[in-house]
Amino acid sequence: MSRFRVFLVAAICLQTAAFSTIAQDHFPSRAVKFVTASVGSPQDVIGRMVGQKLAEAWGQPVVVENRPGAGSLVSIASAAKAPPDGYTMLLSSSAFAVTPSLTPGAGYNAEKDFVPVTLIASTPNIIVSGPALNVSSLKEAVEKARTGKLNYGSPGLGTTPQLSAEYLLKSLARVSVVHVPYAGAAPAITAVAGGQIELASVAMPAATQLVKAGKLRGLAVTGSKRSTVLPEVPTIAEAGFAGFEDVTWVGIWLPTGTPAAIANKVAADTAKVMALADTRERLASMGYEAMDSTPAQFSAFLKQEVAKWAKVVKETGAKAE
Residue 201 is part of which domain span? Predict the structure, then answer.
């Protein structure tokens, strides 16, 4: 009986390995679907660009399905329920790492419901001031906040730009500010440029052109290094507030149970797309940097991001709308 069990286990292992190889060799054999958030969101725009390149490489259509609602929550929860066959992928943003802490009943488990596949793009957030606030640096803006009420806008409550600003201004700088949430980065930028609010915190692409045109002043970017798109804007550390870094990033996931061979193939093929000169140039024109990673690297990165945002949510007292 023990010998039979050994043969049985060996047969199962061989069958699993064979299936994994077949899955990789023949994937995809039909259309692939990217589930993502609202039309026009960073993950939607980047997903369509990457999807087109992957469709060309695979010889199969890559369809983007938008599932807007509750930030990115509806799209994430929907993708978590998809069959684990590789044909439905989640294409989401840093909201994936924030939502579990911000919304305890989110409807998905960031570590158990998905297989991290690859990171594909990132951009720092940026703090900008408008004509209603006559300052030339982040420190000056903080001093203004100490002497009077200051408003700042963001793409919405619980977004990483909003949480970055909350942590920076309230936890690090320890000043009182009033948050004004908007339905996206564009209206927040319009409000600060029009003088309705003094500051705004958004993903950098939304503010780049107005900063270059001199209609907004870039006070700090939230990354660890200056952006090549706006090299004159200092980092938060250079602006005098070390101890926190943040970027808005976009990545790909598969539902848990998807064969590892498929995840590895998607990661490898996507890395080839992100290395193309035209992909990198197009992302750079949008203010994004092309990224790539293995599933293991993306998994490690996600654990750090989930822990970081849990700390920020706890310290700022942020809550979902």
Answer: 124-221
Examine the domain organization and report whether 165 and 197 are in the same domain: yes
241 within a domain of the structure (yes/no): no
Residue 40 lies in a domain: yes
Tens digits of pLDDT across the chain (321 residues): 455 454 544 445 545 444 444 445 689 999 999 999 877 777 888 999 999 999 999 999 999 998 877 767 888 888 999 999 999 999 998 889 988 888 877 778 888 899 999 999 998 899 999 988 989 999 999 999 988 888 999 988 888 888 889 989 888 889 988 999 987 888 999 999 999 999 999 988 889 999 999 999 999 999 888 988 899 999 999 998 888 888 889 999 999 999 999 999 999 999 999 999 999 999 988 888 999 999 999 999 999 999 988 888 888 887 765
Distance CA 19, CA 231 (A): 49
Residues 131 and 99 in one domain: no
Q: What is the torsional sign of CA 258, 255, 185, 236?
A: negative
R_g of the chain computed on alpha carbons: 22
Number of structural domains in the chain: 2
Considering the domain architecture, whether residues 99 and 132 belong to the same structural domain is answered as no
